Amino acid sequence: MKRHLLSAADLSRDDAELVLQTAAELRSLADRPIKKLPALRGRTVVNLFFEDSTRTRISFEAAAKRLSADVINFSAKGSSLSKGESLKDTALTLEAMGADAVVVRHGASGAPHRLAHSGWVRSSVVNAGDGTHEHPTQALLDAFTLSRHLGRGKAGSLDGRRVAIVGDVLHSRVARSNALLLATLGAEVTLVAPPTLLPVGVDTWPVETSYDLDAVIPKADAVMMLRVQRERMNGGFFPTPREYSRRYGLDGRRMATLQEHTIVMHPGPMVRGMEISADVADSDRSVIVEQVTNGVAVRMAVLYLLLGGAQPGGEE
Amino acid sequence: MSTSSYLVQNAAVLGGEPTDLLLRDGVVAEVGTGLAADGAEVVDATGLVALPGLVDLHTHLREPGREDAETVESGTQAAALGGFTAVHAMANTEPVADTAGVVEQVWRLGREAGHCDVYPVGAVTVGLQGERLAELGAMADSAARVRVFSDDGKCVSDAVLMRRALEYVKAFDGVVAQHAQEPRLTEGAQMNEGELSGRLGLTGWPAVAEEAVIARDCLLAEHVGSRLHVCHVSTAGSVQIVREAKARGVDVTAEACPHHLILTDELAATYDPIYKVNPPLRTRADVEALRAGLADGTIDIVATDHAPHPHEDKDCEWAAAAFGMLGLETALSIVQETMVDAGLLDWAGVAERMSYAPARIGRVADHGQPLEVGAPANVVLYDPSVRRTVDPARSASLSRNTPYRGMELPGRVVATFLRGRPTVLAGALV
After folding, report:
1. What is the separation, in whole angstroms, between the first and last Cα of chain A?
2. How far is Cα A39 from Cα A43, in angstroms, rounded to an integer?
3. What is the DSSP letter of B339?
4. What's the pLDDT tens digit per position in B357-368?
5. Nearest to residue B211, comparing CAs of B184, B189, B182?
6. A56 given a catalytic annotation
7. Pick from B77, B28, B82: which is nearest to B354 by CA?
8. Which residues pair with A95 in a beta bridge?
9. Of the candidates B337, B312, B353, B316, which has an alpha carbon nearest to the alpha carbon of residue B404?
10. Is the CB of B199 inside 8 Å of chain A's CB atoms?
11. CA angle centred on B194, ends B191 and B196, rounded to 5°
12. What dihedral do alpha carbons A241, A243, A249, A255 form, nearest 10°?
């Protein structure tokens, strides 16, 4: 594995499978009364969050703590975009504190890349979501969840499985990372969105695209719904939220067209009634809560592998 | 100033046979071979190309207002080192150069600095706000004698305002230099829109946002019979629109920037904002189209868009960084690399694109004249045979935001003369 995890494209198939296998071993911890390993004792993980994201932050925090790392949460709302302390000065501060890994969430695409390659810090950098670019650990936890339900053979293989990713692909870092990672793992990904919410050049991505949700989902093994952010609703990308829901929302009627084994996913937070109806979100097909549990295991695996462990539990 | 004269020996004027040039009393006094020094200081120009002093139609000197990035003094030093004897200082200063007072201040600072002539560009609209015309006539009539008007940095996007500006400046033979950028199509834009912007998650700046404005402005200029200048053309489509307009007889001129002749949008994948510029770096196909347009005369001139920024405005995440890059000290080298060495342009062509034509467009009488007897002694001596590695620390600019750091480029300006007086000798400021 590379020293940083900035993009799902940083992961070869072997890398991705190693993360998922490691996560599978670590996940069993979640069912034990004592959920802690000494693997990263004495190491420091900094959660550097320039954007609010309680879910992602506590997931990384739980992951680091279960590996016995020291965790520093650094909430730096007001990046240099809003003329607060600059990313560079924040990074230099963290470096001075001796961080071994920096988990960074930032509103600007490429900010983790800058952190990793500018010479400001020596620690490993994990992208916890940057602007409209990528969110690789979300893709890993999605792949992990998919492989638990749909996996074939060894952990991580999704060969031939069909995954529909539906919604605001244009602004979605989750979609970008999933498109790359799921293709790496052999899945056949179809992005479904109104044409205004597909990026220019999406035809060069390793995916299919469609504007027609009803045509895609009966063949899918998994349907992943993306959140539509409120600020997009009045941006002229589609006429009204109601029209969006009718054409691209997953409701009970559409859920009835899914195959028996098909699962429904959502990276959260959901806008119930918009891209997903309440009965779908709460249905037996929904693995949305499980995604959260898996997120901790996957992030443990990422931190463990980046900070250089050999085998989980093999130390001490 | 001393009244000493200079005998430039064995210079390849426009790349031709070795010739001597006697510079005396501010003019080219004699041209020929074996000229007698006659008390003049001798400059051995063997192996050097002599060109008329370069004229930049698009320079940001940042003074008044952002003296932390550049001053008229430092910017014109960089210009002289780049072989320029005249620069046009863009209007987007603080305060904006939208009154006779501000343009006269910039003009006076240029005269006091003395490294090259400074011709202020006047803003088209008050405060660059795109709402109402600035006092264009007052700026034209001022001591600065403004002839080029531009809201550069912003587009005069309102069609009526653009029409009126084009019409109004006819009264004093002015020209409107348009920064062609449709604002609604480029809200939050960060880089060229294409496959890469989608992958990097950076908001795209589509070519059509430039091309649509250029097409409209060519039609407006044609309709009202005015002349139009298009700043920093960056796309293949824009080149074609200008080419077709010229074929119809529209009085339009266009510029290309050195960075758009050599760099591509691939560099954005580094997320290093040293490559962030407006209009953005485009694709290889656009670069090729610009070079072809510059070669065939569709693109009239090379203009630097020299845009200094302090370190902290580039040492940050891409979206937070300022647009722009340095250009004055590397322009001629990049034109050599991309045009001359590539066989697309000879040195006479370089003189046309970087001296004669920009002086004509800016209505600058004292620059951009052939190196003949009686012409103002504005001369640059250039050694095209050497190669150098760009070191930002050696720039005369107060800023360091050059995208060519560490890049090896051909050529070196050895000497620059402004009205017979050296501003640069032996590659260093005098």
Report:
1. 23
2. 9
3. I
4. 999 999 999 999
5. B182
6. yes
7. B82
8. none
9. B337
10. yes
11. 75
12. 150
Indicate if B343 and B304 belong to the same structural domain: yes
Stated as kind and residue range, the H or E segment containing A305 is helix A288-306
- All residues of chain B having their beta carbon less than 8 Å from the beta carbon of residue A87 are 316-317, 320
Residues A227 and A273 in one domain: yes
Could you say which of B335, B362, B389 is where a domain stops? B362
Contact between chains at A201 and B194 (C-beta distance less than 8 A)? yes
The CA distance from A68 to A58, in Å, is 15
Handedness of CA B203, B290, B122, B328 (dihedral sign): positive
- % of chain B with per-residue pLDDT over 90: 99
φ/ψ (deg, to 5) at B203 = -60, 130
Q: Tell me the three state secondary structure of residue B100.
A: helix
Is there a domain that residue B122 lies in? yes
Q: What is the CATH number of the domain that holds A211?
A: 3.40.50.1370
Give the distance from residue B220's alpha carbon to the nearest chain A alpha carbon, in angstroms. 30
Contacts of A10 in chain B (CB under 8 A): none
pLDDT of residue A74: 86
Nearest of A179, A180, A201 to residue A190 by alpha carbon: A179
Pairing of strands B428-429, B421-425: antiparallel
Task: Choose among B368, B422, B359: nearest CA to B23.
Answer: B422
The enclosing domain of B225 has a CATH number of: 3.20.20.140
What pLDDT, in 10s, does the model give residues A250-299?
Answer: 999 999 999 999 999 999 889 999 999 999 999 999 999 999 999 999 99
Instruction: Specify if A296 maps to a domain.
Output: yes
User: Could you list the residue range(s) of the whole structural domain that residue A45 is in?
Assistant: 8-134+292-306
Which is nearest to B115 in space by CA: B418, B426, B419, B428? Answer: B418
Shared-domain flag, residues A173 and A262: yes
The answer to whether residues A187 and A142 belong to one domain is: yes
Interface of B with A in 307-366 (CB under 8 A): 312, 315-320
| Nearby residues of A93 by Cβ (< 8 Å), 6 or more positions away | none
Alpha helices in A28-168 (DSSP H): 54-66, 87-97, 111-117, 136-150
Residues A93 and A169 in one domain: no
Domain limits for position B45: 6-49+375-429
- Are A173 and A281 found together in one domain? yes
Per-residue pLDDT band at A311 (split at 50, 70, 90): very low
Residues A133, A111: contact at Cβ < 8 Å? no
Q: Are A60 and A183 in a shared domain?
A: no
User: In this structure, are residues A174 and A132 in contact, taking their beta carbons and an 8 Å threshold?
Assistant: no
Contact yes or no for A304/A276 (Cβ under 8 A) = no
Indicate if the pLDDT at residue B372 is higher than 70.
yes
Q: How many domains does chain A have?
A: 2
Q: Quick one: A277 and A300 in the same domain?
A: no
B114 and B93 in a common domain: yes
**In the predicted model, what is the mean pLDDT of residues B244-265?**
98
Count of the separate structural domains present in chain B: 2
Residue A309 has a pLDDT of 58
Cβ–Cβ contacts within 10 Å for residue B252, how many? 24
Helix, strand, coil percent content, chain A, rounded in steps of 5: 45, 15, 40
Its pTM stands at 0.94
Q: Do A79 and A183 reside in the same domain of the chain?
A: no
Q: Would you give the end-to-end CA distance of chain B in angstroms? A: 12
CB contact under 8 A, A88 and B320: no
The domain boundary residue, chosen from B315, B341, B362: B362
Distance from CA of A139 to the nearest CA of B (A): 15
d(CA B139, CA B136): 5
Determine the residue of chain B that is closest to A198 in CA distance.
B198
- Among B194, B204, B317, the residue with its CB nearest the CB of A108 is B317
CB contacts, 8 Å: A130 with chain B: 201
